[in-house]
């Protein structure tokens, strides 16, 4: 909860703008659960990176932040890394219905990518324009809760009870808790960083998801998957390294490393 002083200082004039990303986030979350009916968790995390391209375009237009040519190349390289990581394994698509399910999941994730891009960049702009991250979260989650409640009224869930399924296991509550912590973390990330940083963070989550799935869901990590992760790491270096480091010679680069160690 916010302290009384913070509650009294909330700005209500432009608060209605938070209804737009709140509605898009609600739609996105609904589509995510629909997509998980057709694709596995690693496939979901990998396809979720389609928002790399949509977010980059929306970020460039809305935030009007120019990117260097090699940064665009880094983003394309990140797309190549995802393509390598999502290369189908031999024998994994032997049945036509399996391919059909993957295409349905991919189509849903394409819609998720655009919802996430518009909602994320607009939310970043609103958070940076707000007096505090807490105030921005108050309006975003308030509108999100209202929109979600309105979507539940009259549905089958309303007849069964809004907490149906939550009384049989702690797993649903764990999912809610993880998403709540994730939402707070992303809000501060938007405040002090940007949407591109979030995309690269998703790539790190992609690798972690694949590792956990290989442990608990019998998901095998092959050469293409590991190669894709390596390419995404190279993409991150290309995007964030300073231009003078990228265009320096190998001698200057190693001399800089040696000089840095001596100064430490």
Automatic annotation (TrEMBL):
Membrane topology, record value: Multi-pass membrane protein
UniProt KW Transmembrane helix keyword: yes
Transmembrane segments annotated in the record for this chain: 69-87, 102-126, 138-159, 171-190, 197-217, 223-241
Location(s) in or outside the cell: Membrane
Keywords from the named record: Membrane, Transmembrane, Transmembrane helix
Principal location class: membrane
Keyword flag Transport: no
Protein name: CMP-sialic acid transporter
